[in-house]
Amino acid sequence: MPAVVARTFAALLACLAALAAAPAHAAPDHASAMFVFDEARTLCERDGGALWGESLCGPIMIVDPADRTVVANQADPGGVLVERDGAFVGTLPPEAMLANTRVEWSGTAWTQLLWPVPFEPALLRVFLLHEMFHRVQPALGLARGEAGNRHLDTLDGRYLLQLEWRALARALMVDEPGARLGHVTDALAFRHARRDLFEGAGDDETALEINEGLAEYTGVRLGLARDEQRRAFAVYDLARFLDAPSFVRSFAYASGPAYGLLLDAVDPDWRGRLGTDADLGALLAAAHRIDPAHLGDIAPRTRHYDADGALRTAEETRERARRERLSAWRATLVEGPVLVLPLAKPGFQFNPQTLAALDGVGTVYPTLRLTDAWGELVVTDGGAALVHADRTQATVALRPGGDGRSGEGWTLTLAPGWALVPGERAGDSTVARDPAPASPRNR
Q: Distance between CA atoms of 411 and 417, rounded to whole angstroms?
């Protein structure tokens, strides 16, 4: 690792350790919100729309998930927010989604930020620009329909992904072109081997790398001023997601900045070639004139990045535990009595690092806030909800003898006019609209 990148990386880790020890901000107070808005404006005005051809400046709302209070940087066309000391305040209605992302509400598209936000400078800047990019992403034609990426919860999928990350990290930490090219070639070899092993993996991974990988790349590229800072943060991104419970929806946050910065170094115009089927790895391979399909056996490359086999051993141990966990989820969320919640216009709030694929059925959410016309389902630690692959329904396990409105780690709040009714299978329940009450004339 070049000394300057090593020093920058060490300084970044020290800042993050200090941040972890610092007390959290209790509420989105006016001064803190105005600081965030000023920082966002400074960052987007400094870019001036140069990176993507469109300004990232725009409406921002900070929302406290505890009580849904809002502090925004501008008025809403619907007139819900009230001006107060240069900001605009109000309360987000129950049906509005809560997430760090683009949210359409009260007549406009917002960058929504959930409180508390990180206040360590590097983290705050990357975070702000990541979410501000999401607001303009559809207009740039860079929003993709996402798939499951369930292969990234398997032994070989996870192992090959981490080998790819190790190669990318080394590529970012060297300056000598030949050494960097060697590590890039290794990363592309592992990437190709994984996608060759799992049918459809390339399309699934590419969609999320465009959706979330480009957003995180934008945060790193525009939020940090110097190249060594950007590379150090990209290496940090590759490291911090190693402890994620699942890579199914978190991997792109790590790989996106790495591929973006490596492309910047060899092909500064790559962003102009992001068509509907764009793949960051394919763009990097083309820039280096590498054909990943003809790189040969990956065994020698594997030994270079997992010399003692410790990574493989750790993944084999994890795989045994995963199979046991999936067997338990299948017994409770598929085979046992369940509450079935139909999904028409669902709203999801969840931790993408915790998702797990249940083969042939859908995705398990260990924590989740799910809303639809029938009301709200909240799943907390110790619970689990299964969202079927076609997203037509979600299920949670019913507790024997329970009231059907709560269970192991979950609670259901029904909207007015909805009730619990028997499901299609014996022992199951579902929700349905209450029959209209009889009119006085017919009583």
A: 18
